[in-house]
Amino acid sequence: MAYVAVSGGEEAIEASIALLNYYRSGTDKDLDLEVIEEKMSLLVDRVMSEAGLYSKRYAALALKQCEGSSDEAVFLLRAYRSTLKRSYDTRVVNTQDMRIARRISAAFKDIPGGQVLGATYDYTHRLMNFSLETEDAPALQKKMRDLVQSQTPVEAPDSPRVSDTLKDEGLIDRFPANDEKPFDVTQNLLEFPAPRSARLQTLSRADTGFISGLAYSVLRGFGQVHPTVGELRVGAVELEVPYLENPEESLYIGDVLLTEVEVFNEADDKNQLKLSCGYGAVFGRNENKAIAMAVLDHELSTTGDFPTQNDEFVLMHGDSLEMNGFISHLKLPHYVTFQSKLDAVRKTRRKTT
Amino acid sequence: MMDKQSMEKYNYAFLDEGSKREIRRSVLKAVAIPGYQVPFGSRELPIGRGWGTGGIQLTLSLIGPEDTLKVIDQGSDESVNAVNIKKFVRMCTGVPVTTRTQDATLIQTRHRVPEIPLRNDQILILQVPLPEPLRVVEPQESVTKKMHAESDYAAIWLQLYESLVKYGKVTISAEYPCLVEDRYIMNPSPIPKFDNPKLHEADCLYLFGAGREKKIYAIPPHTKVVSLAFDDVPFERESFAGKKCRLCGSTDTYLDEIYDSATGERYYQCSDTSYCREVRSKCK
C-alpha cells in the first residue's frame, strides 16, 4: 500500500541509520583520523573552508563519519559550530606577515620578495602513479623528514603585496585601511546591496564548485574581463587574541593556513584607464577557489546584467549547507501540496473539456 | 544522529541561551507586526536546511520543561521527518511528546494546520521553505522588500488575474498568499488553500520560521487574514465534494489521495492522522 510510505517512520529511520554503518563496514581496516588529516589534506582544507571552522581533526572526523562526502562533512561541522560559544575576536591578521609556502605572480616576472613555486599539481603530468597502490609510508615520511633536516633555514625576505607597487605608481586606487567591525554573515541576514565584508565572508565559505563555475562564466564571456592573477600566496598566518589581564598585549593561539589572491583588471578612470583589484582568501590550500573568489569579488563591484554582477544571485546560492539542504528536501513527502496542485490542474481541465 | 552521551555535551534545547534569546526577540517583533518578515540570525542545526530548521529553531527557543510537543509533517505524526524532528527535540530537552492535538502546547508542522481548532494556550509553528510571497513575481530580495514597504502589490494581483484569464481559475495551489490586517501580503507556507481560513481570527498564535531564508513572521491571535481574491471571483479551496475518508468517514477534512496498486482503486484518507484516529475512537 502506498500509505506505508508516510507511516512507520521511526523504525525505518533507525534501520536506515544502521544501514549507513554497513556501508562503512566493507573492510576490517580502520580509517585513522591522522591519515585523513595528513594524506587527504586538500579535502580537509576544502571542508574546513566551506564549513568556516578551522579544525583539521574535526574535519577529518566529519569526513570519516560520512564516507568522505564533502557536503555532509561541511554540514556536520557547521551544526557543531553553532553550538560553540564565541569567546574572543582575534586581532586583525596582516597577511603580509604570512609564512609563505608558495607565492606566484602571473603579472610580473620579478616581484619584491620573489616568487616561490612551492608545492603545486599544476606542472605534474596527470598520469596514474600505480606504484602508490602499495606504498612504504614510513619510508616516505623518513625520507621527507631527513630532507627537511638537511636544509639550512634562511631568513625569509619581506614580501610586500604586488599591488602595493602599482598603488605607488597610482595605477590602482589606494584606500585608507578600513577598521570598521565587519558584518557577520553567520549571525545576521544578508541585506542587499551587501557590504564588502559580507560579500567576502560569504564567498570564502561558499561551495568551491559553485563559485568556480560562476568565475568560469565570467572568463568565458558572461562577464567583463580576463583578470590577471597579480599575486597568489599560500602560507601560515598567526592568530592572536587580546590578553585578558592586559588587553594591550596579545596571546598567540595558533596558526591557520591560508590561500590569498589578488587579481587585477582594467577599469575606467574618466578618459583614461586604471587597474582595479579583486580579492580572495580561503582556509587551507585551495587555489582555484581563492582565484574564483577574487574574480567574483571584482565582478560584484561592477554593474551590469551578467548573473555574476548581481550580488543577491551570487551570494544567496553558493552556501553548501543551504543549497544541499533545500535540494535534498525535495525527497521529503509532498503529498499535501501535490494533492493541492492536482486539484488546481484538474479544475482547469474540467473547465476546458 | 547523536547518542545520549554525546548529547549531554550540548545545552538544553541545543542552541546556546544567547541564540535562543535572540530568536525570541525576533518573535516578539514578528508578533508586533503581523505578517511582516523579521530577519534573524538563523543558526545551523544538525538537521538539513530546507528540512524545517526555521520551525525547529522557533521550537527550541520557546520550549521549556512544562511543554508538550507535537510534530506533524503533511498532517501525519508518523511521517519520517516529523519523527526525526521529534526525536531530536526530545533528545536535547526531554519534553514529553504527544500525537493528540489537544494535549500539545507547542505544535510544529509542515504543510498542514490541524483540523481541530487550536486554543489560545497553544502555539502552532509552521516550517517555511520560501517566506517571500512576492518571490514568484520578483526574484530579488532588495526589490521585494521595497514592494512590501510601499504596499506595492500590483504584480501579485496581476498574476492572479492572468491565471484567471488564461485558465478560467486562479491556479495557485498551496502557498496561497493572504493579506494580513490589511497591510502585509504573507505566504502562509505551503499549507493547502483548505487551511487558509483557519488562520483568520484564530485563538492561537501562529509562528512561521524559515531557517534557510533567515526570516520569522507571525499571526497573533484574532488577526484578520484574508486570502487574496477578486470581488467577483471568490477564493476557492481544494474541493473534495462527494469524497470521504475511507477510515473515519469524515467529509469535511483535507484528504490524501491513495492508489491501491493491487486493485487500481483510488481511496481518500484524512491527511490529519491524529484527527482521523480521534473520530474513529469516538465512533466506537
Describe this structure in words.
The complex is a heterodimer of chains A (353) and B (284). Chain A has helices at residues 9-23, 33-39, 41-51, 56-65, 70-81, 137-150, 162-168, 196-205, 208-220, 287-300, 311-316, 320-328, 335-352; strands at residues 99-104, 228-242, 250-269, 272-283. Chain A is of the alpha+beta class. Chain A folds into two domains: 9-81, no CATH class; 95-121 and 137-325, no CATH class. Chain A has a four-stranded antiparallel sheet with strand order 1-2-3-4. In chain A, α2 (33-39) crosses α4 (56-65), α4 crosses α5 and α9 (208-220) crosses α10 (287-300). Chain A starts with 8 loop residues before the first helix and ends with a helix. Chain B folds into two domains: 4-136 and 161-227, Rossmann fold, CATH 3.40.50.11310; 239-284, no CATH class. In chain B, strands 1-8-7-4-3-2 form a six-stranded mixed sheet. Chain B is an alpha/beta fold. Chain B starts with a helix and ends with a helix. The longest helix of chain B has 16 residues, at 17-32. At the A-B interface, α1, α5, α12 and α13 of A face α4 and β10 of B.
| CATH topology grouping of the largest domain in chain B | Rossmann fold
The two chains with the largest interface, and their residue counts, are: A-B, 54 and 69 residues
The CATH class of the largest domain in chain B is Alpha Beta
How much helical structure, as a percent, in the residues of chain B? 25-40%
Give start-end ranges of low-pLDDT stretches of chain A.
1-6
**SSE string of chain B, helix = H, strand = E?**
HHEHEHEEHHEEEEEEEH
Give a count of the beta strands of chain B, DSSP E runs of length 2 or more: 11
Secondary-structure map:
The complex is a heterodimer of chains A (353) and B (284).
Chain A: H1 9-23, H2 33-39, H3 41-51, H4 56-65, H5 70-81, E1 99-104, H6 137-150, H7 162-168, H8 196-205, H9 208-220, E2 228-242, E3 250-269, E4 272-283, H10 287-300, H11 311-316, H12 320-328, H13 335-352
Antiparallel strand pairs in A: 1-2, 2-3, 3-4
Helix pairs in contact in A: 2-4, 3-4, 3-5, 4-5, 8-10, 9-10
Chain B: H1 4-7, H2 17-32, E1 38-39, H3 53-62, E2 69-73, H4 80-93, E3 106-110, E4 123-127, H5 141-149, H6 154-167, E5 178-180, E6 184-186, E7 205-210, E8 215-219, E9 225-227, E10 255-259, E11 266-270, H7 273-283
Parallel strand pairs in B: 2-3, 3-4, 4-7
Antiparallel strand pairs in B: 1-8, 5-6, 5-9, 7-8, 10-11
Helix pairs in contact in B: 2-3
